[in-house]
Amino acid sequence: MENIGEKCGVFGIYGKGLDVSRLTFFGLYALQHRGQESSGIATSNGKEIFCYKNTGLVSQVFNEKIIEDLPGFIAIGHNRYSTSSGTGVEHAQPIETSDKDIALVHNGNIPNTDKLISFLKTKSNDISNKNFSDSKIITEALHTLVKEGKEIEVAIEEIFPLMTGSFSILIINKEKIIAIRDHFGIRPLSIAKLNGGYVFSSETCAFHPIGAEFIRDVNPGEMVVVDENGMRIKQITKGEQKLDIFEFVYFSRPDSNILGQSVYEVRKRFGIQLSKENNIDADIIIPVPETAIPVAIGYANASGIPFEMGLIKSRYIHRTFIEPEQHIREQGVKLKLAPLKNIINGKKIIIIDDSIVRGTTSKQIVKMLFETGAKEVHFLISSPPVKFPDFYGIDIPNQKDLLACNKTIEEMNRYLGSTSLHFLSYEGMIKATNIPESSFCTSCFSGFYPIDIFHKKDDIIGL
User: Fold this and answer.
1) How far is residue 91's CA from residue 111's CA, in Å, rounded to a whole number?
2) From the candidates 8, 51, 205, 444, which is the catalytic residue?
3) Which of 12, 79, 109, 376 could cross-link with 393 by S-S, CB 3.0 to 4.6 Å?
4) What is the pTM assigned to this prediction?
5) Homologous superfamily of 8-241 in CATH?
6) Residue 324 confidence class, pLDDT cut points 50, 70, 90
7) Is residue 184 a contact partner of residue 239, using CB atoms and an 8 Å limit?
């Protein structure tokens, strides 16, 4: 999906006798798809917190020496996606306190930090003029209460009502790791066990590489604490599950499980439902790699139209910091996708993708398929039109830049240059998950925001 990114992925582990920094490295490696801007790990040996973070992919940020210099039995890690709030190492996580007593990683977004800032002002800690992220403000609020002598769990409970937004957060001090999730559970967070210890991850796909066994999700509004006494759980506030449905549409790896459902199987059912809703005469079905592959398999199985990998993705294009020269930059999507002429030439094609945001990449794909010899190009999307911005941790462009906000489906089709354009219906998307609509946040499609977005709603078209 073009020009859209998850803010980050988080990973954490507690286990005496475990090589926690190394295990966290491999956990973050499995979560690389959730963020490629920066990566970081913080550990504790019970006496001191150690931290290293930098820009780049996990494999670029860490090496053997750095991992060895992160000792301890507790660790948290973070992959960050580049967002409008800024890039560079200064925006990387974990966030540390000045005395290195607390470290924090955050997946999500607090669209309005006024309550947290007001709280800090009452503690003579005015940060309103500082360029702090929402994650940094949360960390400072916690730190203020801990410095007053409060246990970190008590501090978390006190500031929890001030965090109006989406968050799956992992926190460590020198002795324990704590997981908290907003009361709607918009961003995912799961728990596993490993050799007497416990592991936390944004997605279950990170458990398998390290041999951890999934236990359950952190429930919305819940706090999970792990220390030398084991794991204990407290429901801080009443929870109501509203998972962001984009986890199924795009973000999560296909080998993850969410709310008891296989992401891979849900995407296959998206394809089956697309086939039921759109009967198209075509020779072959081609996915836009990678997310749409199971969707295309489902469509092919249901329709009887052959599945082909007509577009080949360069696996390593994002693994370099070398800027392309102007001629290469102008190639656009050709830098990432290569068409197979013997598959495409002379064929009526169904091309399947997970969503359309601005439409610029989709337009280039259609043009490339016709240039490769396609007779017809029918574009199918395995989600409804994206009409509204997100304020809960997805880096979606301004609403005015969303193609579906400004054009009808027919106008979008003409803009893309495709033979036809079809979206999975909202009802069909929900049905394919085998999960009730009430368990989802669908704000990008429906314009319904379960958590207050305050003044931002005034700028949204169609509300």
Assistant:
1) 17
2) 8
3) 109
4) 0.94
5) Aminohydrolase, N-terminal nucleophile (Ntn) domain (3.60.20.10)
6) low
7) yes
